[in-house]
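Worked problem 6 (solution included).
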Amino acid sequence: QVQLVESGGGLVQAGGSLRLSCRASGRGFSINTMAWYRQAPGKQREVVASITSGGRTNYADSVKGRFTISRDNVENTVYLQMTSLKPEDTAVHYCSSVVTIASSLIPKTWGQGTQVTVSS
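Solution. The predicted structure is:
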């Protein structure tokens, strides 16, 4: 069982940057694939980026080239560096440990979420 706490969200103007952090406690962080999800009002929750225990990353097409996911296995923390933010990035962002089955990400444990709001 891994407990996750997200932080770093806030209000930023379009074109700005934010860095989200997800601190994990409990066993198993270093062997888990981790992912960031987001959910905008009226929209389905979607995966933004993922990173394996070995550091291999994947990104949604909508954020590729703008966001960077990373992890620190010593500090049990996963980060999402967001640059060139757009109003359509506005959403509650969630951290989750995931398993990959047949190229699909299955979330296992959710954090409480952190709000990112991008103004035009």
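Discussion: Residues 96 and 110 are 5 Å apart (CA to CA).
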